[in-house]
């Protein structure tokens, strides 16, 4: 049971990383951002990316904030996974 919870947490982070990747990939193509699905993708991902865009200016035409945001998300994911595993092991939920 505890392993399933940890896997679910990890999968949530992977889904959001995939959403960041798709959002960045779609900027290379002319898409209709008013499409409800694409609009939801843009709004949810840009909410997170805007935190980094305020700190990291674009280098010419290249926006490196998604790269930094992805690294931060991966580090955060690992920290939360290890903390969850530690807490569950301390509670005797892991073998």
Describe it:
- This protein is mostly helical.
- The protein has one domain (2-90).
- 73% of the residues lie in helices and 0% in strands.
- It is built from three helices and no strands.
- It has helices at 2-26, 36-53, 65-90.
- Helix 1 packs across helix 2, helix 1 runs antiparallel to helix 3 and helix 2 packs across helix 3.
- The model has no long low-confidence stretch (mean pLDDT 92).
Features of this protein?
95 residues; mainly alpha; 3 helices; elongated
Short note summarizing the structure:
The protein has helices spanning 2-26, 36-53, 65-90. With 95 residues, it is mostly helical. The termini are close together.
Q: How many domains make up the coordinates? A: 1
Largest sheet: none
Please mark out the parts with pLDDT under 50 across 5 or more consecutive residues, or reply none.
none
Strand content: under 5%
pLDDT averaged residue by residue: 92
* CA-based gyration radius: 17 Å
- Shape descriptor reads elongated
Query: In percent, how helical is the residue content?
Result: over 70%
Write the layout of secondary structure elements.
Elements: H1 2-26, H2 36-53, H3 65-90
Helix pairs in contact: 1-2, 1-3, 2-3
């Amino acid at each position: 049971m505890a392993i399933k919870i940890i896997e679910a947490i990890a999968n949530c982070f992977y889904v959001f990383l995939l959403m960041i990747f798709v959002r960045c990939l779609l900027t290379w193509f002319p898409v209709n951002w008013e499409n409800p699905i694409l609009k939801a993708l843009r709004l949810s991902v840009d909410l997170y990316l805007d935190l980094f865009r305020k700190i990291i200016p674009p280098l010419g035409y290249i926006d490196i904030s998604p790269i930094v945001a992805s690294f931060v998300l991966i580090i955060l994911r690992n920290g939360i996974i290890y903390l969850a595993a530690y807490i569950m092991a301390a509670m005797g939920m892991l073998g």
